[in-house]
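Researcher: Quick one. two chains, 518 residues in total.
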Amino acid sequence: MRDVAVIGIGCTRFGEHWNRSFRDLFVEAGALALEDAKLSGEKIDAMYVGNMSAGRFIEQEHIGALIADYAGMATRHIPATRVEAACASGGLAFRQAVIAVASGMEDIVVAAGVEKMTDVEPGASTDALTGAADREWEGFVGATFPGLYAMIATDYMHKYHMTREQLAQVAVKNHYNGARNPIAQFPQEITLDTVLKSTMVAEPLRLFDCSPITDGAAAVIVAPLDRAREFTDTPIKVLATAQASDTIALHDRRDISTLDASVAAGQRAFKMAKLTNKDINMVEVHDCFSIAEICAIEDLGFCRKGTAGKFTADGETAIGGKIPVNTSGGLKACGHPVGATGIKQVCEIVQQLRGDAGRRQVENAKIGMTHNVGGTGATVAVHILGRV
Amino acid sequence: MTVARFWRKIPQRYNLEGTKCTTCGRHFFPPRTFCPDCRRNGKIAVHKFAGFGTIVTYTVIQTEPDHFSSPGPYVLAIIKLDEGPQMTTQIICDPKEAKIGMRVKSVFRKIATDGESGIIHYGTKFVPGE
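Model:
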């Protein structure tokens, strides 16, 4: 296998883009990534795009070809493939691009992610997202996504006695980081009270425990490491790519508040990179709900099971703490355009490793990790990236 | 949902008809047609569940999805059936009453309606009790 590097990144602002379409968003992200890599489109050999549900959100399928076409690649007939794994679609698209380059099959490959979620009524977007769980045996009986994660939270708090205040600190910390990220949907700092007094969605989760509905797109360009310096002075090496699956329904899991797919993907990634969690300088985890970040940092081994609430409340996951988590603001504050999230995580880690993260920069960042979850943990993609 | 999609699962949704692997004895609800433990050596038979279980975890849904029949907040839970498997279901009770470890039994109830003129979805919910 060849070593692979990220040579370019681009991300739209995340938010409610009333005046901009699905196509506008991914074209902007792709153009930003090409510009960043100082690359012209003719050099692109293949594209992978993560997208969960354009069929439900904008009644458009066949996203691979659409993106290649509007990115100006139609006459070059490059292979363009849509990758879908619900909220982990972006992470899987990145992994496919890395595999394509590592195998020697392709040289310069775009991994993109895009979701346009606000072109349907809120009820319709919530229902589309329910398709990431088991429609027949979860959605049908009245499970919503917040409801499923709320049941994880109930189980977790019952077993480990995490307080409601500790859980709320996840959102407070992520908004603090998001307020320092120019692409964030909600770049506002909040207090513990903001979370604790927000509308109850599914007990014990309140509105400020939940990531928002977001429009946005992100793109990265990968190339063989030995060619990377043709395009950039700061190539970022892909040290590991890992993916794992688990039961589609939460009720079939071994343990309700452990995502075994996170554990498996994390272990595979550390093994591939020949690293441990102590080597990681910062991690972007999939905080679709505050409880998801709590589980993630335990499942990836950054703290012991049952201790993530205290770990978070003690500031260990803040910038400057033991392991900064979600310096981008995470899904909570940066926003969660489902298919784009996994790619945005890579963009954030690359910015950190280049030293380009501005007011949210982690000092002396050498190695970073991304963790992207589909559904309630039926798919997990984990990547480790490092400075060369 | 089309009538056929709903209709083909009526025995499972109305009567908790699951399956069982007669090779290893493991029960499945929701039903599976392939035993993950015995794989191709598994023999799957229909098994009607008794309808008793225990709450493993729960939440109170305050923002209900469209078309669901519950007036206002409802309790959503994962329960462990006495035969072994776990399932997601609604619990009909005062939301303050729900707790982990509570015993529940199955009842036949309306779940949702498919729009104004679509079919009514019936199925199984649970109530507190032995």
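Chain B has a mean pLDDT of 94.
Researcher: Thanks, that's what I needed.
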